[in-house]
Amino acid sequence: MTSAGLAAEPQQPVEQTPVQPQAVKPRKGRRVRKTNLEKMEILAFVDQGGSQGAAAEKFGVSRTAVTKMVKERAAISAQALVESATSSRKVLQYQHKLSVIEDMLYKWQMQIELDAPALKITGDLLQSKAMEFRNKILADYSSELSDEVIMSLTDFKASNGWLHRYMQRRSMRSLPKQHGQMGMAALMTDRMTNDQRIQKIRDLLLTVSASCIWNLDELALRHRTTSGRLDSVVNMDVRSLERISVMMAVSATGEKLHLQVVGKDPNPDSLKDVDTLSSYGIHYRDHCRASQDANTIADFIQAMNHEASVRKEIWYLVLDSCTAHVAAAHALNPSGSFRNGFSFDSIVLLFLPPGPSGDAQPLHQGIFRWVKSQFRREMLQTLLHEYEQWAETNKQQHGQSNGTTINAGAPVNDVFDVHAHTHLRNTLGWLQKAWESVPPSLIRQAWSACLFIPAALPGDGEAIIKEEEIKAHAELLERLTKVPALQKTLGLDYTDSPDQFMIELIDFDKAEANGTDEIAKDNEIVVESLAAQGLLRDTQRALVLESIKSDDLPMLSISEANSSVSRLLHFMSQDSDNLLTLSERRTGRANLLILQRLLMKAREREREREATTDFTV
Known about the structure:
single chain; alpha/beta; 3 domains; 7-stranded mixed beta sheet; 51% helix; globular; disordered N terminus; Homeodomain-like_sf; DNA-binding; CenT-Element_Derived; DNA binding; DDE_SF_endonuclease_dom
């Protein structure tokens, strides 16, 4: 009946209908072009379980075209962000090499729209920003790009003709130049209204049931180390640099959803044949930077949308305005905007204004801290148990062989491999227990502290929880001090009190970097766009270099750098460690010696410069 309804012709017995069948036959070889929004509809059909063959038949394209759309999903999503239901059927004629600049430029515009809605972007500003992106690509990533792409970028001039075509493709119009001159003033004025924008969200939620108000955010965890001290033994192993990103969602009634964890390894050995959702209540995903991106965030919100639909509710989701969240919102609702809002099906997204937003996010009001604290407690309890088992086994083996016992003060890393017990299977187990331990009263208290709901009930105080937490850490610290070798290895040998112990355990895990303290993180935009369109020869290397540049690390002096290299040389000289082969140690020492010579040259030049400094007036 549905198919009959789609055919608008009246059902009359006209015998001439089958005449001239060749008239409706499409011309051979002619391709049917689809807009990016139409391509997103095809991808949505495939995501909902439809086969590629069925999608090809339903939407009138070839199966090869559908396969290509699936492979180019990221690029199509980026281009579809600007197409609305009322826009004309404009299509990019081909995926040219310069479209990556347009992708970067539009992502930058999205962030500016969020950071400063009053700022008007002129054609001159777009041309200038396009050239800035082009210069950054050539300066920082030319070694990772193919020669063909480099030539195309070198010839790019951001001409008026290019600007006209870009604005046509994006359904934009030009603005007077004076608007651009008012940009910074408008930006500063807009930043002053952040409190008002947060209050607007609070006012909107006054009439919403507490069970339908949710907060979503991510937490980064260095799950294979126990200390932020760079000189601790555990951090001498490169595996301590590994991290995971944990996505959490809590409601104003204290309800928690399943966690979503993103790691770097797509197929961890420890999770082989393990269903993480049924075993731990955790969705595990992989990403080359072990961070939540637009795709993983969109999938998580889609899962929330499904749950809200099952309950026949409309959920209001409060979240910060980081780049990944914004991109996910546009992917879920391409026609949405920060002025008109983002909503689809059973979800309404409420973006907090740019800048530090921790005071307006319940997850930042003690919930993240609780999870990190409980996670570290579970981690240390496992390591203590494994160490005790290892010590007992080792003692028996030594006693059987020569009657000697192990030296309790010897460095544990020589024989006890901490990282053998910090794999993802254990990590997810610790995380599951930590998440389950979060009391609903703490979540309600966090929502109340952010002024989204009325003050919590008297029984929802934190005093008892705080007291129990300190007591648990005191007991754990007492156990750990009985094993000084392990305590030193874990970098926790300078903790004297339970309070200090708690600080040592949780302070080195930073909250997930969300970019809300900057306007349009250009570095992140460049790398994501290049990687999404497959233009980088070595995407992983570029991402690693970018993460190193973006890390908030203190600037070292020449002396401090030289001292660090000396410590690394000493580490590479320890032949009792079985983690590295002799050949690997020799290679490492050779590279470190080269670095040490360079640092010594730099120190000599620094001394010469100090000696020749003219202090005369």
